[in-house]
Amino acid sequence: MVSEVRALTVRLGIEYDGTEFHGWQVQARDRTVQGEVEEAFWRVTGLRVRIAGAGRTDSGCHAAGQVASATLNTRLTPERLKAALNAHLPRDVRILEAAEAEPRFHARFKAMRRAYRYLIVSPPTALLRHRAWARPIRADLTELRRASRPLLGAHDFTSFSKRGGDDEETDCAVTAVRWSRRGSLTRFDIVADRFLYTMVRRIVSTVIHAAEDGGGARAIHAALSSRDRRSAEAPAPAHGLYLMRVRYPRLGWLPKEHLDVVG
Fold it and tell me: pTM here?
C-alpha cells in the first residue's frame, strides 16, 4: 500500500566535520552544510526544501549534534527520509536521527539551550590538526575554572562578539561552564540560551590568557563589564569548536541518540 502525500514537519539530528565547509548557513558560491542537506532533500524528493538549523556554526567548526527542522509534502516516513538523505549526503555530513515534529516546531526559535565544546591539544598532533587547537596551556584546571566563573549568569557579551555580526541582542544567559582534561586534550564545555558570533572562541582564548597571566576572574569580569571588544582576545581557531547538542521544551536534549564522541 502506497502512503498518501502529506505535510510533514521533520526534526533532524545532524553531525558534520566542518573542515571543508564554509559554515552551516547556505551561501551562493561556497560549500555549506545547509546547502548539502538541502541538495540531498532535492535529490530525494524533487522539492526545494529550506531547512532551519539550531546553530549557525562558522567556517571550519564541527557539530556532533546540530538540530534542524523542515516542512515538506512527502510520502516518506521520517526513518525512510533519514536513510534516503544519508544515501545522497557526502561522507562529512550524517543524519543521526529523524523524527516527526509538531507543525510549529522550528529548530532555531524553539531552542532553549545550546551546548558547545572546545578542544585544545598539547603537544601538536597530526591526527588532531583539524580537530583541536594545538596550544600549550600554562595554567592548571583550577586556574582555568576560577577565571571562568564570572561567565555564569545573564550578561551582555558584546566584548566576546565580532563586530559586524547580525546579532542585535547581545545578552546571553550562561548556565554551565566546565574545564576538564583527558590525557593531552583539554576540553571547555559551555551551555547558554544563545551565543553571539565567535563568542565561544573568544571566551576560550580570553580565559586561557587570563588564567596564564594572573588576571584570572578579575580580568574576565572586567572584560564583560567593559562591553568593549578590545578587552577580549582574538578568537581561538574555528577547528576546535563543536556544537554538541540542543535542548527544547518537553523534548529535552537532542539528538536523543547523541554519543559523546568528541574528546
Answer: 0.94
